[in-house]
Fold each of these.
Amino acid sequence: MAHIRLINPNTTASMTASIYRAANDYAATGTQVSACQPEAGPVSIESHFDEAISAVGVAQEVIKGEQEGNIDAYVVACFGDPGLLAARELTRAPVVGIAEAAFHMATLISTRFSIVTTLGRTGIIAEHLLEQYGFRQHCRRIRAAEIPVLDLEHHPEAAYRRIVQECCRARDEDGIGAIVLGCGGMANLTQEISREVGLPIVEGVSAGLKLAESLIGLGLFTSKHGDLAYPRPKPFTGQFADFSNLTLPPGG
Amino acid sequence: MAHIRLINPNTTASMTASIYRAANDYAATGTQVSACQPEAGPVSIESHFDEAISAVGVAQEVIKGEQEGNIDAYVVACFGDPGLLAARELTRAPVVGIAEAAFHMATLISTRFSIVTTLGRTGIIAEHLLEQYGFRQHCRRIRAAEIPVLDLEHHPEAAYRRIVQECCRARDEDGIGAIVLGCGGMANLTQEISREVGLPIVEGVSAGLKLAESLIGLGLFTSKHGDLAYPRPKPFTGQFADFSNLTLPPGG
Amino acid sequence: MAHIRLINPNTTASMTASIYRAANDYAATGTQVSACQPEAGPVSIESHFDEAISAVGVAQEVIKGEQEGNIDAYVVACFGDPGLLAARELTRAPVVGIAEAAFHMATLISTRFSIVTTLGRTGIIAEHLLEQYGFRQHCRRIRAAEIPVLDLEHHPEAAYRRIVQECCRARDEDGIGAIVLGCGGMANLTQEISREVGLPIVEGVSAGLKLAESLIGLGLFTSKHGDLAYPRPKPFTGQFADFSNLTLPPGG
Amino acid sequence: MAHIRLINPNTTASMTASIYRAANDYAATGTQVSACQPEAGPVSIESHFDEAISAVGVAQEVIKGEQEGNIDAYVVACFGDPGLLAARELTRAPVVGIAEAAFHMATLISTRFSIVTTLGRTGIIAEHLLEQYGFRQHCRRIRAAEIPVLDLEHHPEAAYRRIVQECCRARDEDGIGAIVLGCGGMANLTQEISREVGLPIVEGVSAGLKLAESLIGLGLFTSKHGDLAYPRPKPFTGQFADFSNLTLPPGG
Amino acid sequence: MAHIRLINPNTTASMTASIYRAANDYAATGTQVSACQPEAGPVSIESHFDEAISAVGVAQEVIKGEQEGNIDAYVVACFGDPGLLAARELTRAPVVGIAEAAFHMATLISTRFSIVTTLGRTGIIAEHLLEQYGFRQHCRRIRAAEIPVLDLEHHPEAAYRRIVQECCRARDEDGIGAIVLGCGGMANLTQEISREVGLPIVEGVSAGLKLAESLIGLGLFTSKHGDLAYPRPKPFTGQFADFSNLTLPPGG
Amino acid sequence: MAHIRLINPNTTASMTASIYRAANDYAATGTQVSACQPEAGPVSIESHFDEAISAVGVAQEVIKGEQEGNIDAYVVACFGDPGLLAARELTRAPVVGIAEAAFHMATLISTRFSIVTTLGRTGIIAEHLLEQYGFRQHCRRIRAAEIPVLDLEHHPEAAYRRIVQECCRARDEDGIGAIVLGCGGMANLTQEISREVGLPIVEGVSAGLKLAESLIGLGLFTSKHGDLAYPRPKPFTGQFADFSNLTLPPGG
């Protein structure tokens, strides 16, 4: 039995639930999925600032998971992969970001893809990730539906129509074979969009879950040799004092 | 029940068997693994020429698989990923190469990796793949144990020692967190090497199997929109006449 | 007297003849041109699959040429450069692909160029070659006339008009100085297109011939030091058994 | 009178003082320098995790600065540039990171440089920044003195000798013209190292101060058009509730 | 007192005066600005040829400056940065090009920028510089107002309108945060354009001045270790005989 | 009859003669070779400064050639390709640089090459050219024999030994298939070095001649559409007044 913990980096519980369902539908026999969200942080992530704050919550949730002691892998379920490398330092368990997961999967079924995301201003976050992960040349275009993240919850119909509209444009204009959905909040829409657009639609939450299962199945763990080794224990001050002299559990 | 077909692109049956075992050990509940090799081609793949010939066999095995009609994904089990894009054109099922699979997995558990392969002359094949897939900056160095591929079968002890030796050098000198094994024939050595070297060792056959399972689980298929669409049917002549006017099965 | 062998990787004899004429018109005094096509393979090359099969024929034609013993250089006359590195392994004689030849020449007379090819789906092949050869930044755009390759033979008037139309768009919209024709079948149209479009038009068959002449003239041969050394002799099975234990002629 | 606020992202006050002195020595007539550190966070930054936590402090210090209302530019004084893009979103004032500042300056006085940093494990942070900022080809090598950051305070002599030793190796082996010091804690050593090594030594705190002065002098502000616009106001929960519905001052 | 010498690489004195004013407005207390132009060369720089000739004048002006002996830094005030590396070889003083200066500054206040230049044909010069300096990915688009350089002097109103027009298009279509003005002759228009367009406008002459001030303030000099060392003295013939056996002043 | 003009960018007549012989040995039947050197400039080119001055001479020699009216192509015979793009603007005839020529040829016969040049300080010039031309990934290493250019004339034996020594190191350590000689003055040594080192040695003067012949044979000319169009005529002052209002001959 493998236990995969989804970390929703924002603090909107309903989005956590929706991400959980989206992932759980894809869980293999023998995979237990659980989901959590930080105790503190932004209700949605739509800027570098939101992302920076949310990274603390991601780290805290990994530390909690390590204390629970029975988590086999983590998925960071926000398309900017906030705190991903920090999270990897905190555990031997594999940690997968949903942006990277979606990019990896998209390159396995197409030669070029486009991204359809929520707000145009977050496009730069995706660009930086594409560069860091090596997929810049595989992504033809980043398109924004220009809807705030929480509209996916509050105005689902209108949001859905805008996303499908941009996906159809990507299909017709970008010379691509697949589309990556650029927001964890779109996870539950994948199949419906795919049917309507007629292209493979890659969504990161489910992709991240399957990559996490894969890494567990392969017996691979986050390398503790070199730059992802556990952080050197040290004092932290103020509201972050709990991070002081972190002793990560042996199983971690 | 998902059926994944491993295609060993060379014609050495014992290597097919070894690859089968290496993959089957990692198969999830509900995954049926089968393995095959081309009817015609080189007994090992150690050059661009060997690779070019083996690509025909890979294509033939995909066509056969499509005619069988019950294959859900293919894994091309040679580290040069021969015929990968051709194979993808021939089927809607996902097709995963073991080099790409290993690269993807290695980037999820480390920030930089090295490759340990058989012969130095095949390093250029890996370099070209790293460039095409986007992982050039993630790979610090390609190292060769300078052993012919079939020595992995004929002189397993000596071959094993040489590979471990290069892996240790990579660990100590390259500033990496993981090592990718650069030959399908090394698949059964992964765990032993990992124990001895003390780093995560990523091997492509098992990695390819898990990625194939993931794509099946996600309901993703090779995009038939754009440049991976089925090949236009047309006449082929001579020994390749069987490829003429290929009508791929509806399920394909 | 230098003997250059053109290898048309597809099996359409009329296209071989047309390529021969296109090249022969440009041959220097002292250059003998001959042309051949594989005994087996696709009648045209419009996909990764077609290309993979054609690479075998290319290799076979090089082996034949080496057995003839009087070939000084080879030109692989299909825009995807199928089997190019395999061919280079099989001979000390220089081997030039027409895509690479055209790219090289275009960069000598302009700072940026566009490609006009037949079908959009082959654009990815050109993109991968541009990346591998280093010319990605020199190519502004890959344009497709969306005509099947054999239409160049069957509907030459209509095909010609479509190609000119795309060339004019490239000239007016792409900010380029030259155009590369992306199909060996366009070889005989070069001068006419150039006159009509008013830009230098670079065509690969003639460019490949001149580069082959240049390499012969320079006394340069394909390096046998390192990764283009002759393939290690080994058994091949089935319909490829003739490749077994290849002993390439001393002059090869 | 221009007011530049140095933000030391770690919470070690003595390091803040040292950074302040290092910068103040270089301040132009008419520049007022002040320095601060977060109320909460790690005492030194030596990992992705430390960096992620420190980014919150950086953001908080910018928000405080904006509330003070008289800050003309900020310098983020840790070599990983933690929270840089988040900080830029929070203010119209220019914000400069010391890694980027050092890289920019180094390219103006040399064609290639090396970095000498504290711990090897932080090299990957510098590598990612070089890639994001565009300086990967300008940096020949990242070298680590393998000293913890606080040893710069606790064992200054030994630390200094190790740094000079690596700088000399860089000078002699790397084919470079300048060296970038990869830690804010080295700021006060710059001139001494430069004298001993005989190469231009670029240090980020002073470089960042001068770039901040330059941007102020030019009347340039952080663009609020597009992806660095103020974050959309929204609720934050828990210990981050203070960030809720942030209304940044008009002057901000 | 720091003395910064602006070198206008073209020979139009009125443009030198205009560049001088543009820079002097931004000079810090304690900075003395002087400006010069070559005795010989083109009246404006609009081609590789113009640029090649102007590089001689730039070198001559640096040599003159070194003989004067009191110059602390140089700014090469033409957007192609002609002769920049040659100039750096001739002096220990920092030398800053206005294209590089503008690029550096633009990346500090935005994540992506566009360039608005005079003639389309000079775009390739900017492209080559972006590649060499590392900023290719930061520049979304190079736009030309298609006005000859001297029209900035002869038809200022019309030229200004065309530039503003292109800047507005860049703002609305390119997904950028800042605009770089691609011609030294536009220096005096910066503030007016910025007001009208509503984006940060980065102009190289003022940016170069501030970077020069910064380097002086930091005590940084052009590295004489390695490839920017003083040129080896040697004979020059003909009209360039004056460059023979150049002995650069000790202070140089 | 095709007339190719070699331009030796330095003013050492004996080197012009040596370059002439090196090229003439490779001239095809029907090719007339002539060689010239600027009337003014450095006696050798070993720095950015030397190169900048020599670019004027290159331009002047092209203008002279155009006035002669019977030149079909030019070769710029210094490894830094000084003034290459300026030269291309001045004529419709093809202009080939010897660095680019050598790089192009080397990639046709090997997958990776190294450069052996004279002085280490000129390595950066080669690096910048590799980047601009697209061959950065094809060049494994730039090695310097650390001999001044004119030592090739004055101490030929010692220079030859040093070059062979570096070539052997490149062969044994760099993982390459070919070596590019990085100085026009080495042109006459090519065959001897190749025999001694046992690798294909690519030399730019002969390579440039053959590429020039190829372009002539193909009827290709330097594009006058876009950024290599003739320079706009304009006044030049001082010693460069002769360049004023350049009217290039109709044949040009």
Note: The beta strands of chain D are 2-7, 31-36, 41-42, 73-76, 95-97, 113-117, 139-144, 178-182, 201-203, 236-237.
Amino acid sequence: MTVTAPKGFRAAGIAAGLKSGGAPDLAVVVNDGPDATAAGVFTANRVKAAPVLWSQQVLRGGVVRAVVLNSGGANACTGPAGFQDTHATAEHTAAALSNRNARLLLGAGEVAVCSTGLIGERLPMDKLLPGIRLAVRGLSRDGGPAAAEAIMTTDTRPKSTVVGGAGWTVGGMAKGAGMLAPAMATMLCVLTTDAVAGPDALDEALRAACRLTFDRVDSDGCMSTNDTVLLLASGASGIEPDQAELTAAVTAACHDLAQQLVADAEGATKRIAIDVVGAVDADDAVLVGRSVARNNLVKTALFGNDPNWGRILAAVGTTTAAFEPDRLDVAVNGVWVCRSGAAAEDRSKVDLSGRDVTIRIDLHAGSETATVWTNDLSHGYVHENSAYSS
Amino acid sequence: MTVTAPKGFRAAGIAAGLKSGGAPDLAVVVNDGPDATAAGVFTANRVKAAPVLWSQQVLRGGVVRAVVLNSGGANACTGPAGFQDTHATAEHTAAALSNRNARLLLGAGEVAVCSTGLIGERLPMDKLLPGIRLAVRGLSRDGGPAAAEAIMTTDTRPKSTVVGGAGWTVGGMAKGAGMLAPAMATMLCVLTTDAVAGPDALDEALRAACRLTFDRVDSDGCMSTNDTVLLLASGASGIEPDQAELTAAVTAACHDLAQQLVADAEGATKRIAIDVVGAVDADDAVLVGRSVARNNLVKTALFGNDPNWGRILAAVGTTTAAFEPDRLDVAVNGVWVCRSGAAAEDRSKVDLSGRDVTIRIDLHAGSETATVWTNDLSHGYVHENSAYSS
């Protein structure tokens, strides 16, 4: 049920004609309250799409009553006119919702906007605005799955999650299959909860969750202009969890979605977990994990079922993390192919026939750990990304 | 004539049996003097191969009378035993040269060693040592081309250069086709000159040259454990150029070799120059150029002949360089597809049918410029690197 699993939310997903093939491409999520608190985390890319600039502004108000999301166009690098398109999208959504629903009298400043698709092209507003009216008419308590489907781009399947609390629930949907990178990338995610929570509590929960999940997914090292993760609370359960409970549930929801993103990364044949242990601190562990996750030579080797630990060591060696090169240990799928920086167990013992790969790197410098998730670099990745816009 | 173009040098390239196919895999370059001054630049990777650790030590002495280079094995991540192998290689080369040549009575500490190939495996010393004797017997004044061929790995052709000074010459050979990265990567390069130059003059010339050439080649963002660039001077011309002349000639030689490396990068179908202009300083310009050069989405788009400037902007946006996102201009092969951060000239005007691509990025933040060279990310790259060690 994705975003409509918690009480107080309706959603819809429809085809507005933004995608050439006629697939669903527009989603609306509405928070019917009683509360409308929210938090958001956005791309760290300095080139930000118009909807990111807009939604950051909306979030500053701390109230989000609706989110409108489109695939079929990122509305990034579109200049002042593109920002005006986002503004019109929010206004139109607010007006359509206010017309349909006496309960909801909302302004554009309470509507977040998310877009995904090709960068640099204006959105076809003549299709988008009628699509918004169609979606608003279709809003329903079980519209979550349709919304999750409408935000897909090169995803092969929708991603959704539901995490139960004690009398309250977190639901969520996400899209994203490439450009997953440091602090995320073209990833859109809307999380909903019927817990009672103020903006500060939501912000704390969402930032903690992203840090441990989406921020540790690095599919291809690229960072999008459009990444957005939103968390909306309706308070409809009447239950106010403590901060630890809230953070744990939001983290579990983000973890579940992040794993689905990695599993569905463009052209991937492997889902790779890089466990870094023995680090001085978590930052070092993430740094090392990310360096390995981004290394094209490691990623192509794994695509070829080759436990090429030398390339892993070379990637570790490019970081500033605390370690001694001659103390590094590396295991691939449980076989310690490298000990003390040199060959150890026979690499032919490594079984890479399955889809899941675990690389374990022991820095022998401390006791902190982190896991970074990535995927392999395959012919499919090259194919999808060399053909995407043409 | 590569490294034997300048007076005072002999070289040889032979098959020692390190490569399974019987191709040449061992080269020796000898400086017959009268001088034996030298400078070296090595990988910045903290995981350094045994020959790098050894040669750094040799260079500290400032005297290099011979270089022995092998393909067919990197001798990286091989522990203390691997370092011992490098030491034995240098000793054996010194002994073989001293036996053959009364003029040359040299110690292992005057022999630099370079290795390239698979990481993590010991070298077959039973083949390498006899190979050294064979190569020393074959040393000749026209052995440069054979040496350049013997150091190839996945290179499809040898790389060599000759740059003429006023009565003196710089010659050089290089290998490297993948793992070209920040401050180079599995790249071996030996430059020779018959100019009269002390170690400090050579060091200054070589560092300046690398900074503008090899350091600005970024093929796949990966950094090798083995990169080595050596510059040897025999003084046999009897002419001592001034520092500017020396630096200019060495830079020209490195530029020529760097261009050959980019053109022969693994699986590449495009040779891409990223010209960054309007930067506050050269560091910013290089930072931006490198970020674009490493971006897999930009590289796959160019493989697909797609002038996807949005991905270029997204790559620029990940840097800390001084610029305003809404002032960025981007041209692809002369067509300004992006002005002020948004679409400008029609992308269909961009002709990407040729092998050479020039991306020009104007940051509008200052007056400094830099060019970074890279290549596209193709099916060939994935193929070569997924099959390399197996």
Note: The longest strand of chain A covers residues 271-279.
